[in-house]
Amino acid sequence: MAPIISIRDLTKTYANGFQALKGIDLDVERGEILALLGPNGAGKTTLISIVCGIANPSGGHVLVDGKDVVKDFRLTRSMIGLVPQELTTDQFETVWNTVSFSRGLHGKKANPAHIEKVLRDLSLWDKKDNTLRQLSGGMKRRVLIAKALSHEPMVLFLDEPTAGVDVALRKDMWEVVATLRRAGVTIILTTHYIEEAEEIADRVGVINGGKLLLVEEKSTLMRKLGRKQLILELSEPLPVLPPEFAGNGLSLSDDGSRLVYDFDSQNEQESIAALLTRLGQHNIHFKDLSTQQTSLEDIFVALVGGAK
């Protein structure tokens, strides 16, 4: 099946000469959740703006469901919902009218039943008659999501959707996103909260300096770039690491009380068992052990920090 979004050699250079995107290639599969991670100025919002038809590319092309976003602007825009970073709403309009009007802007006929469902799903139903200025920042963020869903899009872009939202509301939004994915909506999420990507994304893309550094399935990324460690608290400190153990991923803490073993997660049972057996043969005993794994945040920092 063809991807719902296909991006090829996409570039964007602004009038001042700043090159925001440098040859982006990306396919987004139907029904997946893709998390785009990157620091401020990496090019995330520019990429979204071009796909959504808000900005024009300098080069390359973008297809949404096989349609070009420049040549078939109205059609592709009707397929996409966008939740922007900024809280741009009419502060004196009601929630109901705001969301209903947004549906009309995309050329869709009035559908009160759908608007009601969206508001209920986002816990906004009891606020439907409130004006936007009466809502908290978190509730205003929910209204933006409701507006983006009002015209029943195939693709939903969430550009930092939980910025300024408390943890409870953030968890609620993750549940809404999961529900949308089950309904077949494709979701592209940009975020500074790495735990969001770990929680809900199928694939993770890392963008920095206008370049897409990688796009991987989350589990594959963790397996390839994540590091696992076995930490052994020794029964008695060691003055030095025996030479028989040098060069195989084993290190001794400065105070000699702990051994740290970096191991291959694909063969962890065999390698750990072999290590423990060898330690016992050398009369090195431990009183406690634990494991830890590199987080997605660690991987992201390493990738962005190492990119030039």
Automatic annotation (TrEMBL):
<dbReference type="GO" id="GO:0016887">
    <property type="term" value="F:ATP hydrolysis activity"/>
</dbReference>
<comment type="similarity">
    <text>Belongs to the ABC transporter superfamily.</text>
</comment>
<dbReference type="InterPro" id="IPR027417">
    <property type="entry name" value="P-loop_NTPase"/>
</dbReference>
<feature type="domain" description="ABC transporter">
    <location>
        <begin position="5"/>
        <end position="234"/>
    </location>
</feature>
<protein>
    <submittedName>
        <fullName>ABC transporter ATP-binding protein</fullName>
    </submittedName>
</protein>
<dbReference type="GO" id="GO:0005524">
    <property type="term" value="F:ATP binding"/>
</dbReference>
<keyword id="KW-0067">ATP-binding</keyword>
<dbReference type="Pfam" id="PF00005">
    <property type="entry name" value="ABC_tran"/>
</dbReference>
<keyword id="KW-0547">Nucleotide-binding</keyword>
<dbReference type="InterPro" id="IPR003439">
    <property type="entry name" value="ABC_transporter-like_ATP-bd"/>
</dbReference>
<dbReference type="InterPro" id="IPR050763">
    <property type="entry name" value="ABC_transporter_ATP-binding"/>
</dbReference>
<keyword id="KW-0813">Transport</keyword>
<dbReference type="InterPro" id="IPR017871">
    <property type="entry name" value="ABC_transporter-like_CS"/>
</dbReference>
<dbReference type="InterPro" id="IPR003593">
    <property type="entry name" value="AAA+_ATPase"/>
</dbReference>
